[in-house]
Design goal:
Number of strands: 0
Number of helices: 17
Number of domains: 1
């Protein structure tokens, strides 16, 4: 058991390196964004666009990453055929999506609320396509336990994004201000939001290019029985993923629609800025998922698999609680370092939502751990039902409370929904694939940590 935990911890650390670097750099870039963008609302525009993009990304990959891991673990399935089938499916949907976005970019952006910015839709269509097409090759690297190569390409993506962001947000304005505008004659200060998206697009293209050697197989739908089995297995994960994105990011879209037009983008900008401070928990959960998903599928062949899952869950929760305590205690010192624009602190609710969001992301991570039961038993529809139920709860509660409470409501609703999904998944999962999770120890640890923080905060 110790060897398994050590291996998983090592893989999590390697997969987490680019995520940690990305978040740290993103925090470093946040002050540049906030100081360079003319309005707080411009940061809100970026939040809304990325929220919508996250939702669409789930559709484009349509569960094929998890489907790949499930079918490639079966000895009778040819790994190359599984790769071909998964990648070809993603390729077809991505190309169709890109064509539709380029044709209908103006009506789409007008519906979102930014008329005249159809270029945003076109750029994001390309970002989403390259990211979707990279998903299955990245999954192949995880399947082969090539964590270092995976981390290297992810890190390259980050580096390209950072360099271009610094170029657009710092170097170009500097050159214009100091009489060298002819060197960057294309640059317009009012287009900084677009330039941020272009930096992302370039980084996604570079990552895809470096993954091309991984795509050395024939693409096509030759193996129709395998394609049918993979689609039947994976399609419920589309709804699970969509529901997850609704829970995670769609509150920005609802804030845009439900708050008064003159304050919506401003409020979203504050919410998004402080939401980023909770991302230390998110990046740990994300790194764990990258390592754990292939590990869980491979481990399922072992007789003591359930005991391994239980022990992993226990240590995962302890790690999350440690991250929570460190961050909430250091929050008064961390926040001003990354949110340098004082306008974001006018509303004190920004700081208050960070502990709530940290706990929400911890429960999301617990839910991801629990999700192995329906993935292994081919009962992905249960995962879809739980996810859709959570999404409906998110939508209903946000519609009710956003008009009066704003983004504070969104933060607390996120925690409530993730907690509810965790409880339901545990109760249902124990009926179909009982894992001896140390529930009493986990609940006690959570109560002790949250209780201690509450006493400290209100004392």
């Amino acid at each position: 058991m110790r060897h398994k935990l050590k291996k998983l911890a090592g893989q999590t650390a390697i997969y987490g390196i680019p995520s940690i670097v990305a978040r740290v750099i993103n925090f470093g870039l946040t002050p540049i964004y906030l100081l360079s963008l003319k309005e707080v609302g411009d940061f809100g525009v970026m939040a809304v666009m990325y929220a919508i993009a996250a939702f669409i990304a789930v559709v484009l990959t349509h569960g094929m990453e998890t489907g790949f891991f499930n079918f490639v673990r079966k000895e009778e399935e040819n790994p190359e055929e599984v790769f071909n089938t998964a990648f070809s499916s993603v390729l077809l949907i991505s190309l169709l999506f890109a064509v539709l976005c380029f044709v209908f970019s103006n009506p789409i952006i007008e519906f979102i609320g930014y008329p005249g910015k159809g270029i945003y839709i076109q750029v994001f269509a390309l970002i989403l396509c390259f990211d979707a097409l990279s998903a299955i090759p990245f999954a192949w690297l995880r399947y082969e336990n090539k964590a270092v190569k995976f981390a290297g390409i992810r890190s390259l993506n980050i580096a390209v994004n950072v360099v271009l962001t610094l170029f657009f947000f710092l170097l170009c304005p500097y050159l214009q201000k100091n009489g060298h505008g002819d060197l960057v004659s294309f640059f317009k200060q009012e287009d900084l939001v677009l330039y941020a998206f272009i930096a992302n697009l370039t980084a996604s293209l570079v990552s895809f290019s470096f993954l091309l050697p991984q795509m050395k197989f024939k693409f096509g739908f030759a193996n129709k029985p395998l394609r049918r089995k993979m689609l039947l297995y994976s399609y419920p994960l589309i709804f699970t993923g969509m529901a997850g994105i609704v829970n995670e990011t769609f509150d920005r879209v609802l804030l845009k629609k439900l708050l008064p037009a003159d304050v919506a983008d401003h409020e979203i900008g504050i919410y998004n800025a402080f939401y980023k401070l909770s991302m230390f928990m998110t990046l740990f959960v994300q790194a764990f998922r990258y390592a754990a998903e292939p590990f869980f599928f491979q481990e399922s062949k072992q007789q003591d698999a359930k005991q391994s899952y239980a022990k992993i869950m226990e240590y995962f929760v302890y790690a999350c609680l440690g991250i929570f305590m460190i961050l909430v205690l250091l929050l008064p010192y961390i926040a001003p370092l990354f949110i340098t624009n004082k306008d974001y602190f006018i509303n004190p609710d920004g700081m208050r939502i960070v502990p709530v969001l940290l706990l929400a992301n911890m429960f999301l991570g617990i839910y991801y751990n629990l999700a192995i039961w329906y993935k292994l038993t081919h009962k992905n529809l249960y995962g879809a039902y739980i996810g859709i139920g959570g999404a409906l709860l998110t939508l209903i509660l946000n519609f009710v409370f956003i008009p009066s409470l704003g983004f504070v409501a969104s933060a607390w609703i996120t925690l409530l929904v993730y907690f509810s999904m965790t409880v339901v998944s545990y109760l249902v999962g124990q009926r179909h694939y009982a894992v001896p999770y140390p529930i009493k120890k986990i609940i006690l640890a959570i109560l002790i940590v949250v209780g201690s923080y509450s006493l400290w905060y209100f004392s």
